Predict the structure.
Amino acid sequence: MKPGFLGGLGRLNDSGQSVSKGGISVIACDVQARTGNTPGGLPHAFDASPAQANLNAQVSITQAFSSAAPKAVVDYAQSRIKLAEQQLAQARQEADPQVQE
């Protein structure tokens, strides 16, 4: 590093531990400076419980939809078939204005 350089260096691994080092310059500070955290690294700042609650809610919603959707589709299709049959029966009873008797 050059004198007067402002910068930092960080390292993160899969175990959730991280080390951050920073310094104002090679001359003015210790290059091995730590952020003030314990030697074990930065504390976990991510709270997984809201994400888990959201995931659980999505699973419940999906399960409810998966069990209710097929019946709703069948009920809708049957109601449309019944309406079409009623309209067909009504049309058969009416005289066709296009047909001359």
